[in-house]
Recover the amino acids of this structure.
């Protein structure tokens, strides 16, 4: 398959006279795709029912005539001002009970049925009008569900919908009281109508209650998206996508992905570095102009799974952005490297955000492919280079990898409801594992928590899966492949209660977690042979073989047949020791990579990327700073 490039364009931001020249220039740069429309509601419908689609007809025609394919976004992330007068209670409400105001975007509550109907209506109008338009080659629903902390809404609409959701799940209020342990602190309810949302309680709400609210909120996103997809599909055969984000775990992306044809995500490697990667100051400084060497790759692998194989980067950072604590410019070459990193993980397309920098409003400090004065910006020059390379580069395809890593949004909900120690996050634990695997030179498939078939994998890593249905326990116990569990495996029931027999209670693994503790950052627990447990550790009993020990002689990692149980949060040394030993046993070749050097195996070609600011050596030869190297396998 030919990999492609694109950009995000806002015809409504520019005089119509320049659309044609813009379109021509996009095509000359080698771009295939142009995403438009996702914030244009106030220009499509300036007053209720006053429809103005003619400009969009002309924009699509102009772009299409230049040979570009259009991704048409539904504009529901930006309901216009009049909508608030029509539905004053549609605003999302934050955890302190304050409505989010109009004046930016994403100010709607997923549970508000009045807004849901408005969303249906505008999506239907677009789908009817453009569903068979030859230039509209793909759709995008809404924009970045959950961005700006908008998945959880504590509105009256959410409260009413939550009660219905609870009743459907538990049937009777007695069952809910029992499942949540509401006898504790006299929290028993006598009807579903009494159950509030779990905010503004005096101290923390019951974790079972909070977890239920997280699951409900996730389901509301899935429902909202599904309505749009169904309407689009009724009128169009073009694939439907949504653009997800980096390290946003507030809703189950796999479940949204089930309703999509293509998963896309918005990759801002420098923007993410400080707040989302979870790395220390030295690391942030080292990669300030390149981005973390593993964070993008992790999400590429994640969204390949969410999209069931079909995925894109819908927004690629084009230069300095406006929204991170600091916003440096990328090292020359990085905007090319990021694109190749995405292709190496199977991206069908990489679209740079945005075509021309807007001199007005919130994102005036955000670079584009063009400067506000229309001159080429560095992103355009690097994109042109990628386009030329795509014409001659080897075909990239992503066969199944030897190692699978399970990622489960529900586990992330549970960890965030009850972290037990400052900074303990499921996402971080999985990402630390991913980084260690990548630093061993491994290519990784991420698989969802609902997976039951692990055939073809030689190692399955399942860190931190706090809730494990019996059939997953059985599937892993019988997988016939090396499986790595722990910490916190099956540590809670589906309703957030400690199970008895105590965890992990996996068939064929004689290990019991007797006690758990969380640790200050300055009290790591060293292991014999190197490395330590940081932040969290479990005291293990069991008859299985001890594979690694703490320095005080207590068991740290148990092994029984093909099952390994890790009783703590291993640092990089521990994780690399563990996985290199297992890889050796499984006959998987590893190589130690350091600094910013990484590789990814595609069919027949190993793609090396250097996130370092200095040249480096690979087994296939030297690689320049911010460079990409293709090694034939
Ligand atoms: C994304 C968003 C875009 C734009 C961009 C700026 O989160 O989808 O609309 O705001 O960030 O970096």
């Amino acid at each position: 398959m030919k990999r492609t490039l694109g950009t995000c364009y806002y015809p409504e931001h520019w005089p119509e006279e320049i659309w044609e020249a813009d379109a021509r220039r996009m095509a000359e740069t080698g771009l295939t795709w142009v995403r438009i429309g996702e914030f244009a509601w106030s220009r499509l419908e300036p007053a209720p029912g006053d429809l103005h689609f003619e400009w969009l007809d002309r924009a699509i025609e102009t772009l299409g005539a230049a040979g570009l394919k259009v991704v048409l976004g539904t504009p529901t992330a930006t309901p216009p001002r009049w909508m608030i007068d029509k539905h004053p209670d549609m605003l999302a409400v934050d955890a302190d009970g304050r409505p989010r105001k109009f004046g930016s975007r994403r100010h709607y509550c997923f549970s508000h049925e009045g807004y849901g109907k408005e969303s249906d209506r505008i999506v239907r109008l677009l789908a009817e009008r453009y569903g068979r338009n030859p230039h509209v080659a793909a759709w995008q629903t809404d924009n970045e569900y959950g961005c700006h902390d908008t998945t959880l809404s504590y509105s009256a609409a959410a409260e009413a919908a939550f009660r219905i959701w609870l009743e459907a799940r538990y049937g009777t209020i007695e069952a809910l009281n029992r499942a949540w342990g509401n006898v504790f602190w006299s929290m028993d309810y006598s009807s579903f109508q009494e159950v509030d949302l779990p905010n503004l309680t005096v101290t923390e709400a019951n974790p079972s209650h909070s977890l239920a609210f997280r699951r409900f909120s996730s389901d509301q996103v899935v429902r909202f998206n599904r309505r749009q997809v169904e309407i689009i599909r009724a009128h169009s055969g073009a694939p439907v996508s949504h653009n997800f984000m980096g390290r946003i775990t507030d809703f189950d992306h796999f479940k949204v992905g089930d309703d999509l044809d293509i998963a896309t995500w918005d990759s801002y490697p420098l923007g993410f570095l400080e707040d989302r990667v979870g790395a220390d100051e030295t690391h942030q400084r080292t990669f300030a102009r390149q981005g973390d060497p593993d964070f993008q790759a992790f999400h590429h692998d994640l969204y390949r799974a969410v999209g069931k194989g079909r995925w894109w980067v819908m927004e690629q950072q084009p230069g300095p952005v406006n929204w991170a604590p600091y916003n440096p410019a990328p090292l020359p070459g990085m905007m090319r490297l990021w694109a190749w990193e995405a292709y190496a993980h199977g991206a069908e397309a990489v679209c740079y955000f945005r075509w021309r920098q807007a001199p007005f409003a919130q994102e005036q400090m955000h670079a584009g492919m063009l400067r506000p004065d229309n001159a080429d910006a560095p992103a355009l020059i690097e994109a042109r280079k990628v386009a030329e390379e795509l014409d001659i580069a080897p075909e990239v395809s992503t066969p199944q990898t030897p190692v699978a890593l399970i990622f489960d949004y529900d586990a992330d909900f549970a960890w965030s409801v009850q972290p037990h120690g400052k900074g303990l996050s499921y996402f971080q634990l999985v990402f630390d594992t991913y980084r260690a695997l990548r630093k061993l030179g491994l290519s990784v498939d991420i698989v969802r928590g609902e997976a039951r078939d692990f055939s073809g994998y030689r190692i399955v890593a399942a860190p931190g899966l706090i809730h494990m249905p019996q059939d997953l326990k059985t599937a892993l116990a019988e997988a016939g492949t090396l499986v790595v569990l722990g910490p916190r495996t099956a540590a809670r029931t589906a309703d957030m209660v400690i199970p008895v027999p105590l965890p992990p209670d996996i068939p064929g693994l004689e290990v019991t977690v007797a006690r758990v503790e969380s640790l200050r950052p300055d009290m790591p627990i060293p292991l014999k042979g190197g490395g330590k447990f940081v932040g969290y550790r479990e005291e293990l009993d069991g008859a299985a073989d001890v594979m690694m020990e703490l320095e005080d002689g207590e068991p740290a990692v148990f092994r029984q047949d093909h099952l390994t149980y890790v009783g703590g949060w291993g640092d990089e040394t521990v994780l690399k020791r563990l996985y290199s030993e297992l890889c050796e046993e499984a006959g998987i070749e590893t190589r130690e990579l350091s600094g910013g050097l990484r590789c990814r195996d595609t069919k027949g070609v190993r793609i090396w990327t250097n996130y370092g600011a200095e040249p480096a050596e690979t087994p296939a030869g030297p690689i320049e700073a911010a460079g990409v190297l293709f090694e034939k396998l």
Observations:
- Residues 5 and 350 are 5 Å apart (CA to CA).
- The chain has a mean pLDDT of 97.
- Residues 207-235 form the longest helix (29 residues).
